[in-house]
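pasting input
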Amino acid sequence: MSVPPGQADSADFIPCAHDYQVSCGNCRLNAICLPLALESEDIDQLDRIIQRSKPLQKSQHLYRQADEFESVYAVRSGALKAYRTTDDGREQVTGFYFPGEILGFDGIGNNAHASSAKALETSAICEIPFSSLQKLSSLMPNLQRHFFQLMSREITEDQQLITLLSKNSADERVAALMLSISTRNARRKLSATQFRLPMSRVDIGNYLGLTVETVSRVFSRMQKLSILRVDNKEIEILDPAGLRHMANLSH
Amino acid sequence: MSVPPGQADSADFIPCAHDYQVSCGNCRLNAICLPLALESEDIDQLDRIIQRSKPLQKSQHLYRQADEFESVYAVRSGALKAYRTTDDGREQVTGFYFPGEILGFDGIGNNAHASSAKALETSAICEIPFSSLQKLSSLMPNLQRHFFQLMSREITEDQQLITLLSKNSADERVAALMLSISTRNARRKLSATQFRLPMSRVDIGNYLGLTVETVSRVFSRMQKLSILRVDNKEIEILDPAGLRHMANLSH
DNA sequence: GCGGCGTCTTGATACACGTCAAGACAAGCG
DNA sequence: CGCTTGTCTTGACGTGTATCAAGACGCCGC
């Protein structure tokens, strides 16, 4: 297996032939992924259970809805979307996941994944087998607490999305998503004002409960107002305050 | 403190002068709340940390958004709603909680409650201090697993609501809520076809991302189609199959 | 380079639900 | 009892977003 060429656009990817052997201790994302006061002894234990064998190509699945639940996953580079398929065959995108973020928690409840996860671009993944994680959590109270917190935050974020879908206009929804991506970029020490969207307009619309056309129109409107510069998937936030205003206050 | 009079409409309430001293071992809801293979020894340990001191009157708060997070709570009788207040002062109902169900998980993430919880009618509550729960979880792998599962299910349910809000019509949303309440009633060995809604039309609309007027019109429509009999908060499901059809397939 | 095929944009039209308004009903209280 | 207040219902109308349709753009293989 050779190292895929042209990782230039993936700032989180560590260009090293044996990159899948990085440990949590030296991973530059650990401040996001594991902001814990763990002894290096503890980190070693964690390292031992984590598997880093899965570089995922664009549009490949990490797991599928109804698959048996075995692990949760941390994104090391790239980006993923999670989505569920309803009884009548339609899809609902439930989240986008960027480097340092963890997905798969929705599978614990019934021992089967409640959603599917698909790579939006070439992505490197850390797999964390849940049974090992449970054992380790019993021994390391910090770790147990950390995973309770991660799940709790997922709940909080879902509730924010619920509010967004329930109460906000198309403009507000798109603005909120742009701000969310901007914030998450900043957390990874990337530009908060310039980035490339890994997902399509269809995915954005699906996630926000809007049609592609509406999303497109909102982007055009924002561009006309000089809040954003939009060049296909390339986004530049020209007026952060205006964007925040558009997301929150405008009724 | 005297026992409140007139609990006749609250089927889950155990009419006993010292009812706040029931233990998990003999609580008739434990199959829902704690479906665990726990030794009676373990149950005793759990009993010891749980506090049952809080009978809540209608419209009283169990906790408020931004309150310090200390406990999660199990509903013993009555019903509650959880809601968050957005920056611009509007409210979003994020869930309804019935006997046997546990709420408060959204507070773990940042050590502060991310939502408020308010009693929709007189309710009895079991308080489970989270720090004790964490310690106990480390000792009892089953218990740890159980709470991971509960949180995971909360995530799954939130995602179902996201899908509902994002993809479904007013008819479908209301139908889905009625089915959800029906199912949860059945789980508690109550009628799946006849029940009294503890929440107002405003709450329903808020939860489902609809106005009161729309909710009311949907109920009228359902009544005209002989799917439901609606008498203010009293609901009778006349045509369960029709209701299911209305919730799922109709487009 | 050129053709083909997604993805994205833009415009015209339709409709589901929101908004506004008024009346009906229920509950609490002097 | 009648008054008040809040909740619920029903109707008429307006609007934001979906839908339908067509064209523009970008990407890839040949």
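fyi Residues 169-170, 210-211, 213-214, 217, 232 of chain B lie near DNA strand C (CB under 10 Å from a C1').
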